[in-house]
Amino acid sequence: MTRPTLVDVARVAGVSRATAARVLAGETKVDARMSAAVEHAAKELGYETNSAARMLRGGRAGAIALIVAFNELDSLTGTFFTSVLKGAAKGLYAGEVQPVLLPADHDEGDRIPRFLRSGAIDGAIIILQHEITHLAEALVDSPVPIAWVGRPRVALAPDAIVIDSDNYGGGRLAARALADAGRRRLGIIAGPRDMEPARDRIRGWRDELAQLGIDPSPIVHGEFTLVSGSAAMARLLKRYPDLDGVFASSDLMANGAIRVLQAAGRSVPSDVAVIGFDDVAIATTMDPTLTTVRQPLEDMGRVAAETILAVVQGREVDRQPILTTTLVQRESA
Amino acid sequence: MTRPTLVDVARVAGVSRATAARVLAGETKVDARMSAAVEHAAKELGYETNSAARMLRGGRAGAIALIVAFNELDSLTGTFFTSVLKGAAKGLYAGEVQPVLLPADHDEGDRIPRFLRSGAIDGAIIILQHEITHLAEALVDSPVPIAWVGRPRVALAPDAIVIDSDNYGGGRLAARALADAGRRRLGIIAGPRDMEPARDRIRGWRDELAQLGIDPSPIVHGEFTLVSGSAAMARLLKRYPDLDGVFASSDLMANGAIRVLQAAGRSVPSDVAVIGFDDVAIATTMDPTLTTVRQPLEDMGRVAAETILAVVQGREVDRQPILTTTLVQRESA
DNA sequence: CTGAAAGCGCTTACAG
DNA sequence: CTGAAAGCGCTTACAG
Predict the structure, then answer these.
(1) Are A3 and B119 within 8 A, CB to CB?
(2) Residues B71 and B124 occupy one common structural domain
(3) Mean pLDDT lowest for which of A28-37, A112-121, B77-86?
(4) Dihedral sign, Cα of residue B153, residue B155, residue B161, residue B166
(5) How far apart are alpha carbons B99 and B92 in whole angstroms?
(6) Is residue B274 part of a domain?
(7) Nucleotide at minimal C1' distance from the B58 CA
(8) Which candidate, A242, A137, A241, A245, places its Cα nearest to that of A182?
(9) In this structure, are A24 and A141 located in the same domain?
(10) Cβ–Cβ gap B93/A111 under 8 Å
């Protein structure tokens, strides 16, 4: 049960501790025989570098945190964040770094900031979600680098790391697609007011409508979830009974909205065209299948991983990449 | 960005490093004025104990790993593991320990065992799942204590930590319930052959049937997922077209099985009664709602957390608790 | 190319 | 009750 140390490896291999360290660090200028002896001893003893000692010496932990909203772990909204998560984990694996998921709650105090300050990990990726927006403030001046997936609504340092998709452009795409389909009586189901990506989608949507000379549409807000999408659609329908096009700014909300439209006797897309945002799995399994603005979620996660790794390792890198959004044409619009 | 150290705190407070350490460790026999000065300095500097240094000194990391199958993160089967996860996380929070989720893959080599050997965490909880059964072997002689939720199919040390539910008793409950409902032509959709809990359910089922003098039923195997439940049901139906009762040993498989039965023109429960296992959310939203054997999943997670914490802290504790399973009567049987 | 030694930040046995 | 000092396991600048 007692872990072997570098001294044990050195003793078994018959070399100094320094030499053993060099071999295990991959240095090449070591006598081949010594090198082989060290490798052999390490394997035989089941040696693994003590991460605490390495870190204390000024090295890296070899672990990056992925901070996610705890609630999401068992809800359907998970489809968004799990895609990002998957990409991020793959990116970290590729960098030989251990991804470490930290569940965060909206009511848990400063556990997460404290953990980051304790130096156990080299950096963190935060997947922006409505439930954990409060973390943004607590982590603005974090001692370890943080990559935001989705821009938080706090003042960030100019060199902050933010990976985002082109939400503004996506909003424009949605407006243009509905206009191209001949729709003129439009409405938007926006996301939470406290989320910057949600606001960017609204801005893009409005700008494009203005440019096309279409009346500014009424806005209702949801929380990116299916249930909130249904509720928002009901409100929108009451306010604007003869609308013929809806931009629901998440696929889950689009799903909820379509259910409400259908229940109200509206056919989709013939009576009302609906466009979503995200392009998660549900978009292809719904009936009708969902026309939507695609965010490259897994890519966003992967880029977040690559970016934070570069920063941790002191390499130059674009700290605020914006990934392209594209329109995916299906049946609903 | 440079983290303050204990020396900084001591200097600001005007005391020795030793005294500062004592105050922060919560020792009471310290002069009140010094104590206050230290507390103040620590807060002002945003001091947090360097976990690497503490660990190296022989202390604890203050973090426990939760090892979960990566694939599960975005599939519906997540309902089982997220319940356990939630309970475990709550239990760790209560113990002031940071839960750290490590996604594991079936093909990832020995990343996880190596991470555990690196000493970055104090212990681990593994939620047994089909996809990561291979980890069981790699972790049998782990240097840090491991709590298994669900007994793995490897030879464990007698003092191994295993949190399980009474799968055997649950199997008996299912058999008795179907028998009580007057069913005599029974079949079982069992779980994966390489999972001990799945095997325990079969044994309980068989023993109870034998005791009741009912014919041993045919067995088909699924993988605890909805799709595999459908496939298994189709096979079972072909083999035994006039069965009138099925024990599907996970709720998801029961869900899949019922769909197949209904598609085949059998009414549930009048033609065929179906009993599941787990009692996850879907059991109450299906049509008909599912009669099932309940495992207290969240409790299992919580008990796993409490048990590993006790072991890490050197406290005495029951290392192999078995939680009770109960029958939850709904519409399907 | 190899080894002896310093030092990362902490905790605690020891001396006072 | 308080402080000086040792030592956890590692990496690397320094000397040879």
Answers:
(1) yes
(2) yes
(3) B77-86
(4) positive
(5) 6
(6) yes
(7) D8
(8) A245
(9) no
(10) yes
φ, ψ (nearest 5 deg) of residue A319: -90, -10
- Give the mean model confidence (pLDDT) for residues B194-211: 96
Q: Using an 8 Å Cβ cutoff, are A246 and A233 in contact?
A: yes
Averaged confidence pLDDT in chain A: 90
CATH code where residue A123 lies:
3.40.50.2300
Query: Which residue is nearest nucleotide C6, judged by alpha carbon to C1' distance?
Result: A57
Which structural domain, as residue segments, surrounds residue B14? 6-49
B5 touches strand C (CB under 7 A): yes
Determine, yes or no, domain membership for A119: yes
Does A11 lie at the interface with B, CB-CB under 8 angstroms?
no
CA of B20 to C1' of D15 (A): 38
- Which residues in B lie closer than 8 A to residue A98 (C-beta atoms)? 102, 111, 115
Within a domain: A1? no
Q: Are A259 and A185 contained in the same domain?
A: yes
Contacts of A311 in chain B (CB under 8 A): none
Where on strand D do bases come within 7 A of a protein Cβ?
A: 1-5, 7-13
Same domain, A194 and A90: no
Q: Full-prediction pTM beyond 0.70?
A: yes
Same domain, B154 and B222: no
Within-domain flag for A331 = no
pLDDT attached to residue B78:
56
Query: What number is the average pLDDT over the span B2-14?
Result: 88
Burial class (CB in 10 A: 0-12, 13-18, 19+), B234: middle
**Number of domain units in chain B:** 3
Of B1, B284, B92, B108, whose CA–CA distance to B100 is shortest?
B92
Res A201 pLDDT > 80: yes
Give yes or no: residues A153 and A232 share one domain.
no
Claim to verify: residue B156 and residue B305 sit in the same structural domain: yes
Q: Is the dihedral of CA B226, B230, B236, B240 positive or negative?
A: positive
- Distance (Å) from CA B29 to C1' D4? 19
* Cβ-nearest to A52 among B3, B55, B101: B55
Closest residue in chain B to residue A54, using alpha carbons only = B52
pLDDT digits (tens, 9 = 90+) for A255-282: 999 999 999 999 999 999 999 999 998 8
In the block, residue with structure tokens 């608790």: B321
The percentage of chain B sitting over the pLDDT mark of 70, rounded to a whole number, equals: 96
* pLDDT for the residue B175: 97
Identify the helix (H) or strand (E) that includes residue B64.
Answer: strand B63-69
Q: Which amino acid is at A241?
A: P
Looking at the complex, report in whole angstroms how far the Cα of residue B111 sits from the nearest Cα belonging to chain A: 8
- Burial code (b: 16+ CB inside 10 Å, e: under 16) for A9-43 equals bbbbbebeeebbbbbbeeeeebeeebbebbeebbe
Question: What percentage of chain A carries pLDDT values higher than 90?
Answer: 58
Calculate what percentage of chain B has a pLDDT beyond 90.
Answer: 57
Confidence of residue B58 (pLDDT cuts 50, 70, 90): confident
